Amino acid sequence: MSETVYNDPQLALNRIYTRGGDAGETSLVNGRRVGKDDLRIESYGTVDELNSVLGLARVSVAEGMGAAPGLARLDAILLRVQHELFNLGSLLATDPGELHPKQPRVRQAEIDQLEREIDECNADLPKLRSFVLPGGCRLNAELHLARTVCRRVERTLVALARREEVPGEVLGYINRLSDALFVWSRWACTQLAVPETLWEPNRAASAVNNQNS
Q: Do residues 194 and 188 lie in contact, with contact meaning Cβ atoms separated by under 8 Å?
């Protein structure tokens, strides 16, 4: 059990600005100074962006729970994922080999949990006959936005992994999370009883104009 327990944050954020980054550099957790355009900074910065989008989605979940109490399940999942993403950010903000034994990180257990939730929610969904467009409802669109940001995290991590060591669980977690966000976006529509928007290639202007000519 001890190896799955992480240290609590040791922070004192009394002063928000330090001027230390005014020259375009910042410090990793282990103290090394790097440029703010470094791939490692880009990777955990994009994880932070993803976390913010999930926060927005949770606001929509809270607003929809009156009409769809089942969304409380999704709220609990998204909150857990937000914590996991902060754990992931801690890992990415530290040079390989410099991680403290109890420093927060993601492990196979997080991936396994996402897979269980994907399977459980997907079992409630109708089979797809086309690709899905974002926007069946606001929550659906926000979860699709989170999915696309998650894919951007993945692309950045793949680039980082070509240069430095990136634990396999990191890529596995992000890849699985993007799948989960897709399923949750569809599941949100079923809970809110709104239809999904399916891709119809012949709704394009070129196809419509050809049919009317």
A: no
- Choose which CATH entry (1.20.1440.230, 1.20.1200.10, 2.130.10.150, 1.20.200.10) describes domain 35-199: 1.20.1200.10
DSSP 8-state class, residue 104: -
> What span, in angstroms and rounded, lies between the C-alpha atoms of 199 and 149?
21
pLDDT recorded at residue 153: 98
pLDDT reading at 127 higher than 60 = yes
H helix intervals, 123-167: 138-161
Residue 1 has pLDDT above 70, yes or no: no
Domain ranges of the chain: 35-199
Long-range contacts of 127-131 (CB under 8 A, 24+ apart): 128/198, 129/198, 130/198, 130/199, 130/200, 131/198, 131/199
pTM of the model: 0.89
